[in-house]
Amino acid sequence: MKWKKWRLELLGVLLGLIWIAPFYLMFVNSFKTQRELFEGTLNLPSSLDFSNYIEAFQEMNFLQTLFNSVLVTGFSIVIIIFFSAMAAYALARTKSKVSTVILFIFISAMLIPFQSVMIPLVSLFGEIDLLNRGGLIFMYLGFGSSLSIFLYHGAMNNIPETLDEAARIDGANKFQIFWYIIFPMLKPITVTVGILNTIWIWNDYLLPSLVINSPGSETIPLRMFYFFGQYTTQWHLAMAGLTLAILPVIIGYFFAQRAIIKGVTDGAVK
Fold it and tell me: Taking every annotated instance into account, which residue ranges of this chain make up the domain ABC transmembrane type-1 (predicted)?
């Protein structure tokens, strides 16, 4: 038993090293000059020079870009959670063939690759002047709703309808039943939906590159592309920029880790 436990611990350490290796390379190389980086990628920097960070911060217009990413991601997550939960509640509580067909349409939408609809989508939104941050948020609602509704619908089926009936007897309308009784019970799945969509939207490059055209409205993935030119790549600045890009996510996780872990564990227990 001790030998098996020791092997599992060793495997865990090896997997941890593999997982942390890209972060090590990114952080260490962010302090190097272009020449030092190519001389030895795995080597430690000769000095802790923060000039790469200062230059990357300025070139990325980091504060404005960070604001754009937080704005787009935050609003997208809020409306995806709100509308997906309401749609799933309506579909779960309406027992009919129509609701079943609508649910299957949402589920089947997950199988459609974005590349097959991106050209007509961008053309349509361009005609109605929605190639901006508002249009981008609206697109994220459309593309993120399918999986979110599917997850919420599965969780709704585990909540007894007697709660709805009891609240209805007390005089609550449908929205009050959903908002004050059903939605608070969906906290574990809400955390899951929020995490999945945050990772996707925060790191997305393709959709913002098609929609965001005005200077000053770019998200972090778009501004990161500045360091990757057609003929040269400023790897030392790119490493510093990547480090700056993941810092908000890490800081946000540390502040929200208690709620995230509690939501995930509550869902596992249920």
Answer: 66-256
Rg of the chain over all Cα atoms, to the nearest angstrom: 23
What's the number of domains the chain is made of?
1
Q: Give the helix/strand (H/E) hosting 252.
A: helix 235-269
Residue type, position 7, single letter: R
**Alpha-carbon gap, residue 198 to 263, rounded angstroms:** 16
CATH number at residue 103: 1.10.3720.10
CA angle (184 as vertex; 183, 190 as ends), nearest 5: 70
Residue 249 lies in a domain: yes
Asked if residue 248 lies in contact with residue 68, where contact means CB atoms within 8 angstroms, the answer is no
E strand intervals along 61-198:
none
- pTM listed for this prediction: 0.84
- For tokens 């997550």, the residue is 77
224-261, pLDDT tens digit by residue?
887 776 556 778 888 888 888 888 888 877 776 666 66
In a domain, 1, yes or no: no
